[in-house]
């Protein structure tokens, strides 16, 4: 459930007409619903109610906006970060370091130092050379780094290849079959406290079977590690739970069903469980609002050209991802159309042969379920400024990231003297 509804034939976000935001801020613009964020956090937390003090660490990569993170911080969430920048964003938003987990395959010594200075809860190591580097950094600072190894269980998540992370050919984690050896080496490294096991097999999962298979492997590994003398106190089960994008497809498993599976599989593990939800928290809490520039008749169907583009919402171009496209003020008629942006790329396409509301130049359209991996992946291709972001709460709204002027892009370039001469 989200809080984007039609009131008297006009789409609102909570109690605010979307057209009001478009008129004040311009388009394209990302709009987030506080009520939806709150509801999704509560639903996910309720799904894990049978567990003892789980750490829910929001995957910052899904949406790093400071106001969104601050909202989640007030709701008690921690953070899963994959860069020093995300770490600093999370802390600036009020998420305590004691609730932050640092994942990612390419942590640098500088990022490790930053995380140790702040005292994060856990590093999820992804290779033996990374363990060696963290040991050296921790020893140089006189600190001890709490760590887990991320295990690659060689489980196919059944999702898009570009967001699958748990197969043997993926770059993430250490091979399951080499885990005991890797843990033995890490135990002897100074400056490391080997406290846990981590796993994450992919994003936008619509079937719990692969997750259950991966978690079962983790449970077996915990037993083996303890038998080998390791003190395993945490288990990070990652994230990846899918959300509904295409209304014609079956609804992904609800968090409650996921929670039941986790509770059953992890019974007797005697660890603090950790989770890294991202999309399931923010996906349906956001929409990208755009205006139709013009409608151009194509050979087979009209092209609806909007002022949003692939640089604003990368998912359709990158993953062939589906986003429901709705008229903010529908006229009650539908047609088959192609929805494209103004960027000079054929890949700047949001939908082809889509059954949708009839729209014309000047109309507003909303790309739904755009709160995750939307603004965070945006760029400035074709010298298009980054998309602004707005947070709504009830009848209040505020710009939480302004659209930078094109002059800021131009002034960011430096022209050497020998070019000017």
From TrEMBL:
InterPro entries: Ala_racemase/Decarboxylase_C, DAP_deCOOHase_LysA, De-COase2_C, De-COase2_N, De-COase2_pyr-phos_BS, Orn/DAP/Arg_de-COase, PLP-binding_barrel. Keywords: Amino-acid biosynthesis, Decarboxylase, Lyase, Lysine biosynthesis, Pyridoxal phosphate. GO terms for molecular function: diaminopimelate decarboxylase activity; pyridoxal phosphate binding. The modification N6-(pyridoxal phosphate)lysine is found at residue 61. It is an enzyme of class 4 (lyase). Substrate binds at residues 279, 315, 319, 345, 373. The active site is at 344 (proton donor). Residues 33-371 form the Orn/DAP/Arg decarboxylase 2 C-terminal domain. SUPFAM superfamilies: Alanine racemase C-terminal domain-like, PLP-binding barrel. One of its GO terms (biological process) is lysine biosynthetic process via diaminopimelate. Transmembrane segments: none annotated. The keyword Lyase applies. It catalyses: meso-2,6-diaminopimelate + H(+) = L-lysine + CO2. Residues 39-282 form the Orn/DAP/Arg decarboxylase 2 N-terminal domain. Coiled coil: none annotated. Gene3D superfamilies: Alanine racemase, Lyase, Ornithine Decarboxylase, Chain A, domain 1. Pathway: Amino-acid biosynthesis; L-lysine biosynthesis via DAP pathway; L-lysine from DL-2,6-diaminopimelate: step 1/1. The keyword Lyase applies. Pyridoxal 5'-phosphate binds at residues 240, 276-279, 373. Homodimer. Specifically catalyzes the decarboxylation of meso-diaminopimelate (meso-DAP) to L-lysine. Belongs to the Orn/Lys/Arg decarboxylase class-II family. LysA subfamily. HAMAP family: LysA. PANTHER family: DIAMINOPIMELATE DECARBOXYLASE (PTHR43727), GROUP IV DECARBOXYLASE (PTHR43727:SF2). This is Diaminopimelate decarboxylase. The gene is lysA.
